[in-house]
Amino acid sequence: QRLFAARYACVARRDHPDISERLTLALYRSLGHVVTSFDNTAHADAIDAILRSPAVKANIAMKVGHFLSIGPIVAETGYIATIPRNLALSFERAWRVRMYEPPLKLPGYEVSQYWHVRFDQEPGLAWLRAEIQALFGRD
Q: Do strands 8-13 and 97-100 pair parallel, antiparallel, or not at all (unpaired)?
């Protein structure tokens, strides 16, 4: 069940000395990036492929085990990160980071919920899926 379409954003510390109002492609390429080396989503692989692509050739400075590790690292260093936009919004509130539009066109992605057909008619799980759809569904 499709819930919503989403996109990526970049985060850097609020007082980053090299970034003014917008993140340029030249800065995006030259600044150190924090990426995840393992995640249970396709995000890590998609971002890694973009950063390593011949068109970008970004400087991957650090790999962490999960997206949630990125917020405090970016807040305390000169590194930047490209992460799901919803997570970037949360990091702005929780850490001293600022969200930027990526300086290149990045693919979007869809967020969906899945379940095994065996549980399709189970009342408790049907209720939970309906609640999730009501909270997060934007179609």
A: antiparallel
Q: Which residues of 14-48 are buried (b: 16+ CB within 10 A; e: fewer)?
A: eebeebeeebeeebbbebebbbbeebeeebbeebb
Collapse the DSSP code of 34 into the 3-class scheme (helix H, G, I; strand E, B; otherwise coil) and give the result: strand
Tell me if residue 96 falls in helix, strand or coil. coil
Give Dmax over CA atoms of the chain in angstroms: 55
CA distance 75 to 16: 9
Q: Would you give the end-to-end CA distance of the chain in angstroms?
A: 11
Write out pLDDT tens, residues 82-129.
999 999 999 999 998 999 999 999 888 888 899 999 999 999 999 999
- Cα-Cα-Cα-Cα torsion 83, 87, 90, 95, nearest 10 degrees, comes to -40
Cβ burial of 57 (10 Å; 0-12, 13-18, 19+) is exposed
3-state secondary structure of 86: helix
CA distances to 18, 23, 76, 81, 83 from 26, in Å: 11, 8, 22, 15, 19
